[in-house]
């Protein structure tokens, strides 16, 4: 670009401060700029916009031909540069600031130009729990303010603690650096209170930005709505950005809050509503056809920040469709079990038991607290990272239960201080420290283990400094991180269940149950960043909760992959519905928020499924052995060919009828937790494919080890079909049920190609699928695995696994389905739900040309 054209483009960008792009072009014409130069300016501007639109991250879905006008910060901006400077001074890495700049620019680019005469946008930004969403929307607000947005409303959860925390952050990052540019309608300790003459805040003579941080409380929102309505004739001059923090909480399907949010938005002639949440389950289940808060204009999927501790990192997850379970990480070894017998000792069983309840310092709670003090001492030795250190005890939502912990915890603190010179106490602490640091080595995080002797110098001071805080709606002594370093054991409930950040959180003791995905996931205050002590966090919880969080990690990964797939395919919020995996016990979200949800479909075509859960009792296992032997005997009678490989313990019986497979599925008993292994749904799917002329024939494979000379190591399916049993140890039992085993992985990727010609061990999932399409396009594969009942883990896997401990040998089953071009006709329901898009009519769009290009019938 020539210097002359560059100067003209700078003029054009200046005009965009006060005009829409269309109006800015008209003003260039008035200034006498010739059409050729205007065209070159417009083309260069489009190139700048294209670089914003084509960002790889964050992924975005946009509805319609939405005009993009924002090309990023400018040199004369005030709000965003102040935030960037503050982040640099606080130690943010340059790459992290660059990512924040990019993601916030992308969100602002999706907002309407503030000079448009009217607009009503609806958007959703999906982040991760404790991942910096507040910093992101603060940056979005700053950039919007730099471009002329006037009114900023932040709906900050339902508790005073989160509202106050959000107000403090915005005051620090937005207002403090430019105090004359902002008017705050709310304060640290005061939610919205109506003032006289609301119009004076929005009239032409008042050029300051107006900031209001309010709780999602009906009384407060009603006052705010009335106050805005009193200034309605001036609001045309006040383009508004409404940020809904924790947008899935209270905003959706509530009788009081939801209508008040809509009322506020309807009062504002120019309003962009952007919800922020890490748990968008409720938001993506809203009926898109309703006049509500469904993100009809855009959805932004923020990438997970580097070094963020999320569900998958801590809990591991199960494999998604198309993934090899062996490639899926089990997570860090940071979760510790609270036995079932401890639970009634730390939380009352019933509401009636809460009155007069006295908790016990159980062995697990004592260990968690001692470990917290050790980690805090270690962090003082290191001298890096967050200056605060917090432990959370979350066992109940009831205030009287919180308060009952005060005396026992204080006694433990005093007793521990008195015993620090006792050799037995020191031995116990040393053993605890060495055990924990060996299970999660510091070297894995490029840190160095702090020697126990170094801890001892800091430990007395840590324990003396440790405050015991009951942080709830009635307590006066609350967590305050603004006045020097904090060391605290905080006992609380709902205040810590959503949004609130616990600084320097290192240890959590958690037995609080919840019945919905979003509620449970938001209770995970242990998610976030742990700079300088990434090796030290631990969570004590029950095995049942551990299993639930592992499921949630899978749901979250599945949901985000669904979003990314749709965004990659240029779908819009009006044309795709994200599927959410269901759970036998947990709800996806509150029942009221799922009224518009429908069962979603998924197809087996091109997939391989496998059994991973088993009962361990003899009768159940022997029934499955019988079913497998009957299938093999039938296959021997029917098979067109029997490929025996005794040297590897493999047999392949080719070309049996589908009726034999259906008979087997009718006899074999899948574990009830195996949602994808539903015999009735699988059988129904096979029958539908058979009607289309596919899956009439199947191959049956047996995958074992080479048969040994001693029968006790073998398993016989039929005469001449004897193989050695394989080993599959189980994961540590997270359910607490004695009759349960989770082996995680049954099939190897190579097993899915066992019946293919020239199969290569290194084939990817896609290559196997492609080869099945070429070699066996209409043939299914069923694989049987004889698993030794005493399977033990290798020494390398002992920290994650334990002996199988079954009463008899286990028969594992894998099923591999060929792809089909018509799987929409043979789907199965029940394991997913999604929003119902049937009420959406794309014909309602004003973009006639777009409809024609996409083949829509304009009639």
Overview of the structural elements:
The protein has 859 residues and is of the alpha/beta class. Helix content is 34%, strand content 17%. It has an eight-stranded mixed beta sheet with strand order 1-8-2-7-6-3-5-4, sandwiched between helices. α1 packs across α3, α12 (363-382) packs across α16 and α19 packs antiparallel against α20 (658-667). The chain is globular, with a radius of gyration of 31 Å.
For the biggest sheet, the summary is:
8 strands, mixed
Bin the strand percentage: 15-25%
- Tell how many strands the DSSP assignment holds: 31
Give the termini distance in whole angstroms.
46 Å
Low-confidence stretches: 823-830, 840-859
Secondary structure class reads alpha/beta
Shape: globular
Number of continuous helical runs: 23
What level of helicity do the residues show? 25-40%
Give the neighbour order of strands across the main sheet: 1-8-2-7-6-3-5-4
- Report the average pLDDT across residues: 83
Features:
859 residues; 8-stranded mixed β-sheet; 6-stranded parallel β-sheet; 23 helices; 17% strand; disordered C terminus
Give the SSE map.
Blueprint: H1 3-15, H2 21-30, H3 35-53, E1 59-62, H4 79-89, H5 94-109, E2 119-126, H6 133-146, E3 151-156, H7 160-175, E4 182-184, E5 209-214, H8 218-229, E6 240-245, H9 257-267, E7 270-277, E8 298-301, E9 308-309, H10 311-315, E10 335-337, H11 343-346, H12 363-382, E11 389-394, H13 399-404, H14 406-418, H15 423-439, H16 452-465, E12 467-470, E13 487-491, E14 505-510, H17 517-522, E15 528-529, E16 538-541, H18 543-568, E17 580-581, E18 597-602, E19 608-610, E20 613-614, H19 618-638, E21 641-645, E22 650-657, H20 658-667, H21 679-691, E23 697-703, E24 714-718, E25 721-724, E26 730-731, E27 741-742, H22 765-775, E28 779-787, E29 801-802, E30 810-816, E31 828-835, H23 848-853
Parallel strand pairs: 2-7, 2-8, 3-5, 3-6, 4-5, 6-7, 10-16, 11-13, 11-14, 12-13, 14-16, 23-28
Antiparallel strand pairs: 1-8, 9-15, 17-31, 18-31, 19-30, 20-27, 21-22, 22-23, 24-25, 26-29, 28-30
């Amino acid at each position: 670009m020539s210097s002359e054209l560059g100067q003209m483009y700078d003029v054009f960008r200046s005009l965009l401060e006060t005009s829409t792009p269309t109006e800015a072009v008209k003003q260039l014409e008035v200034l006498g700029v010739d059409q050729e130069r205007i065209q070159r300016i417009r083309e260069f501007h489009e190139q700048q916009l294209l670089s914003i639109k084509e960002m790889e991250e964050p992924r975005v879905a946009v509805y319609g031909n939405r005009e993009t006008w924002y090309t990023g910060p400018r040199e004369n901006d005030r709000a965003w540069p102040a935030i960037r400077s503050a982040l640099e001074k606080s130690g943010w890495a340059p790459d992290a600031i660059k990512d924040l700049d990019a993601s916030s620019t992308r969100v602002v680019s999706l907002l309407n130009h503030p000079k448009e005469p009217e607009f009503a946008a609806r958007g959703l930004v999906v982040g991760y729990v404790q991942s910096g969403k507040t910093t992101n929307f603060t940056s979005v607000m700053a950039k919007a303010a730099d471009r002329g947005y006037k009114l900023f409303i932040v709906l900050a959860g339902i508790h005073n603690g989160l509202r106050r925390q959000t107000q403090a952050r915005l005051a620090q990052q937005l207002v403090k650096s430019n105090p004359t540019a902002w008017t705050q309608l709310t304060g640290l300790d005061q939610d919205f209170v109506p003032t006289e003459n609301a119009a004076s805040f929005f009239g032409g003579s008042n050029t300051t930005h107006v900031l209001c941080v309010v709780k999602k409380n009906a009384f407060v929102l009603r006052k705010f709505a009335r106050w805005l309505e009193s200034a309605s004739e001036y609001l045309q001059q006040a383009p508004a950005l409404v940020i809904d923090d924790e947008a899935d909480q209270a905003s959706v399907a509530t009788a009081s809050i939801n209508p008040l949010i809509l009322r506020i938005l309807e009062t504002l002639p120019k309003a962009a509503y952007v919800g922020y949440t890490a748990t968008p389950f409720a938001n993506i289940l809203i009926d898109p056809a309703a006049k509500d808060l469904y993100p009809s204009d855009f959805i932004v999927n923020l990438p997970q920040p580097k070094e963020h501790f999320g569900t998958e990192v801590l809990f591991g997850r199960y494999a998604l469709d198309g993934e090899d379970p062996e490639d899926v990480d089990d997570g860090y070894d940071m979760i510790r079990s609270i036995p079932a017998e401890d639970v009634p000792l730390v939380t009352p069983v019933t509401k009636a038991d809460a009155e007069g309840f006295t908790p016990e310092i159980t062995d697990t709670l004592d260990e968690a607290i001692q470990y917290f003090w050790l980690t805090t001492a270690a962090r003082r030795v290191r001298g890096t990272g967050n200056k605060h250190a917090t432990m959370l005890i979350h066992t109940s939502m009831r205030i009287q239960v919180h308060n009952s912990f005060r005396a026992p915890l204080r006694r433990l603190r005093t007793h521990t201080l008195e015993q620090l010179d006792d050799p037995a106490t020191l031995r116990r602490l040393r053993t605890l420290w060495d055990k924990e640091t060996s299970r999660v080595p510091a070297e894995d995080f490029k840190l160095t283990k702090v020697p126990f002797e170094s801890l001892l110098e800091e430990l007395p001071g840590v324990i003396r400094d440790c405050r015991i805080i009951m942080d709830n709606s009635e307590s006066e002594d609350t967590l305050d991180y603004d006045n020097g370093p904090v060391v605290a054991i905080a006992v609380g409930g709902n205040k810590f269940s959503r949004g609130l950040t616990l600084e320097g959180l290192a240890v959590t003791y958690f037995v609080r149950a919840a019945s919905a995905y979003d509620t449970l996931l938001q209770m995970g205050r242990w998610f976030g960043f742990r700079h300088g002590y990434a090796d030290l966090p631990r969570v004590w919880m029950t095995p049942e909760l551990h299993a639930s969080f592992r499921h949630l990690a899978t749901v979250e990964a599945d949901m985000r992959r669904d979003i990314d797939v749709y965004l990659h395919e240029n779908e819009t919020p009006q044309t795709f519905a994200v599927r959410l995996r269901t759970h036998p016990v947990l709800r996806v979200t509150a029942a009221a928020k799922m009224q518009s949800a429908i069962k979603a479909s998924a197809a087996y075509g091109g997939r391989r499924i496998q059994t991973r859960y088993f009962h361990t009792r003899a009768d159940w296992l022997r029934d499955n052995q019988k079913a497998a032997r009957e299938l093999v005997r039938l296959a021997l009678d029917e098979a067109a060919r029997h490929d025996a490989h005794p040297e590897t313990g493999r047999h392949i019986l080719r070309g049996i009828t589908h009726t034999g497979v259906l008979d087997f599925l009718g006899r074999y008993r899948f574990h009830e937790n195996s949602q994808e292994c539903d015999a009735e749904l699988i059988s129904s799917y096979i029958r539908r494919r058979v009607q289309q002329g596919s899956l009439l024939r199947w191959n049956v494979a047996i995958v074992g080890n080479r048969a040994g000379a001693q029968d006790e190591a073998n398993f016989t399916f039929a005469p001449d079909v004897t193989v050695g049993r394989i080993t599959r140890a189980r994961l540590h039992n997270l359910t607490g049920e004695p009759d349960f085993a989770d082996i995680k992985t049954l099939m190897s990727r190579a097993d899915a190609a066992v019946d293919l010609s020239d199969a290569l061990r290194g084939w990817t999932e896609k290559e196997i699928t492609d080869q099945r399409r070429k070699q066996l396009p209409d043939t299914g594969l069923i694989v049987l695995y004889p698993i030794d009942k005493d399977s033990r883990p290798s020494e390398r896997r002992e920290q994650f696994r334990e002996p199988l401990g079954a009463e008899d040998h286990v028969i594992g089953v894998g099923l591999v389905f060929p792809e089909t071009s018509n799987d929409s006709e043979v789907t199965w329901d029940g394991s997913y739900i999604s929003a119902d898009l049937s009420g959406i009519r794309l014909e309602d769009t004003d973009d006639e040309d777009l409809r024609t290009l996409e083949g829509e019938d304009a009639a």
